[in-house]
Amino acid sequence: MIYKTDAVVLRKNKISEADVILTLFSRKLGKIRAVSKGGRKPKSKLSPASHIFVFGEFIVVRGRNLDRISSVDIHESFYKIREDLRKLAYASYFAELCDTVILEGVTNNRLFDTFLKTLSLVTETVEDFELIKLGFQLKLLDYCGLRPELNKCVSCGGLQFKSIRFSTHQGGLICDNCSGIHRFDSVTINGTMLKVMRYILKTDIITISKIKINPAIIVKLNNILDNYIRFHLERKNFKSLEFLNTIKKI
Ligand SMILES: [Zn+2]
Fold first, then answer.
1. Does domain 2-77 have CATH number 2.40.50.140?
2. How confident is the model over 186-227, as pLDDT tens digits?
3. Interval between CA 157 and ligand 1 midpoint (Å)
4. Correct CATH for 80-146+189-249 of 1.20.1440.20, 1.20.840.10, 1.10.760.10, 1.20.1440.120
5. What are the tens digits of pLDDT across the range 6-17?
6. 67 backbone dihedrals φ, ψ, rounded to 5°
7. CA 42, CA 48: separation in Å to the nearest integer?
């Protein structure tokens, strides 16, 4: 059987001198793993498509053990991302997040579209990557059913917020009445931080990238979201995030 779908390359794993296995985020079939035969050979017709972030229409042949890529019509290669260490670091983290949450055979079109838009933003942007990161993290959580509760207390449903607390472990806001019990697993956030998170959740990533936010707020929210993602995606660490944090120090 042969199938055809738009997809983005999330990862490539070398299996021999000539061949690689590509992990694809596809529009029609969710995650796909398929071998790109000859993908590492410069003269192969599959070579231009056998790079991380390449977006195209993939024709794939179902195999007994492993699917095989037959041909690719490239829509956008996003080559600029691979030529710039900072762009590469951010986009690799976004790809690793997608790879973690998507499943074989399960579509996630809102995440697929947002991921593509985010790759375009990373290609064009020369600064403000941290805002794009924050936006992508929150939208990814929303689109895979892990959206933090930002409208009422996640513990009791209460609405009393003289001081606003956020709990990563509980998954959202903690009200004044519950702040005692959750004193040690929540942090204080301010009204602006809450407004920014709510705004991001209801706004397209392209629009988010254009707003001006105090950099100190973005840093604080990124720390909270990094922890939230580690906890709720049950991953102690992301290789690409470590790489990104190393790049940021340079
Ligand atoms: Zn409460």
1. yes
2. 999 999 999 999 999 999 999 999 999 999 999 999 999 999
3. 6
4. 1.20.1440.120
5. 999 999 999 999
6. -75, 160
7. 8
